[in-house]
Amino acid sequence: MNTSGSISRKDFLKNSALAMAGLALSSNRLGATSIFNDATISTKEKLALKNVRLETGFEYEEGEVIATKTDLFYIEIENGKITKISPNQPNAKAIDAKGFLMLPAFKDMHIHLDKTFYGDKWQAVKRRTGGVKGMIALEQQMMPELLKNSTFKAEKMIELLQSKGTSFARSHVNIEPTSQLQSLKNLQKALEHKKKTFGAELVAFPQHGVFYTDSVPYLKEAAKMDIDFIGGVDPFTIDGAIEKTIDFTVQLALDHKKGIDIHLHESGESGLKTVEYLIDKVNENPSLKGKTYLSHCFVLGKLEKAKQGEVAEKLGNANIGIVSTIPFGSLVMPIPTLYKHNVKVLTGNDSIVDHWNTFGTGSVLQKANLMAQLYGQSTEFLLSRSLKLATANVLPLDDKGNQQWPKVGDEANLVLVQASCSAEAVSRISDVESLIHQGNVVF
In what residue span(s) does the Amidohydrolase domain sit (predicted)? Predict the structure, then answer.
């Protein structure tokens, strides 16, 4: 029992995690000395690495996983693919990975690369008034100025993500009457500049509402361009009509063979109705299964346990994923319940430094660490499973300890970290020594 003035570990974590998140912002390892000292290496079509540490299985004691087995390997990469994995060849003429642990490259699956202060002068968040609509009014004032150098700032933020081991992001990009299509075009320039070392998928995001500011013509135009998802935000609060907004979003996605990723902050009755209506629409249109996501979806954290399980089961059956920032204020999302019902859970930094939030570090490995702390996942096995939050569900070992990554033919997207195993990497938020994307050495 807590006495007056004391606080539980979980409450401490909930209250302090956002403050913790700001600690690593200034760290950027892109200029650091790494195992890749030859400046010409990144231009080669073929790479050979020796002394690469890979996980090979679990060690058990009385049925419990007590350690992760690893060994050193020799790996060849060609034309962006892993072409050879063999027993270590310590005397081979190859890049020496020095025993660093190789893991799947990390993925940030919810971020706004198009509107950020990162790479520009420091600005703290201003006092908010008027809720989300108040923030829309603020953005309408700010976006013309933000767009002046948004390509440069997006590139700087990509470099921050890379320094934390991330080589892929799902970025929402403003599509609304103020920016029209300019925010998208500016971000596409940044991604083109970084295409050899960074991958992305884009969400056409009506930040100012679909109908509230008449974003419809711009969304229709964006849907014809090189984007992957149709986005949305709080259809009841912003547009005043759940069905009208969701119907439009679903139809636009179907017409252009896109996915769906909707921001849902509403935590009351309207939030639940939006979730249930979207589930119904996806079930009516099976081609959207596996391509539909709800970002944030805070209403799940407000439901009673029985209702959480019921909704999670429906989400799992409809193959609708949840993209959750971790944590968010004092709200703890029911991630274990979502996993139990086979709901795909992804995470991202959302904001790094912008007018919404200034606490983002760029590290999704830190997100995995916070999740492990919040949900008591402190054993070797559970820590190793927590890594999937940073890698978008790719793990070196399956639940039984069978090696499932890497395999010959896999895309050469990988990080080398200072850790003995996945569990340690999550628990210690281990330093990233090198990042390779599509066979290209990033650093």
Answer: 220-443
Tokens 């934390």 correspond to what residue? 164
In degrees and rounded to multiples of 5, residue 340 shows phi and psi of -60, -35
Q: What pLDDT, in 10s, does the model give residues 340-367?
A: 999 999 999 999 988 888 888 999 999 9
Average pLDDT, the chain: 91
Q: 25 is written with which tokens?
A: 């912002």
Q: For residue 418, what are the domain limits? A: 41-104+396-441
**CATH code: domain of residue 401:** 2.30.40.10
Contact 188, 228 (CB under 8 A): no
Cis peptide before 406 (omega within 30 of 0): yes
Between CA 265 and CA 296 the distance in angstroms is: 6
In whole angstroms, give the CA distance from residue 406 to residue 85.
Answer: 8
Are 112 and 89 within one domain? no
| Joined tokens for residue 206 | 């009506």
Taking 70 as the threshold, does the pLDDT of residue 370 lie above it? yes
Question: Per-residue pLDDT for 24 more than 80?
Answer: no
- What span, in angstroms and rounded, lies between the C-alpha atoms of 153 and 228? 22
pTM: 0.90
Residue 405 sits in the same domain as residue 375 = no
Whether 8 is in a domain gets the answer no
**C-alpha span between 292 and 343 (Å, rounded):** 11
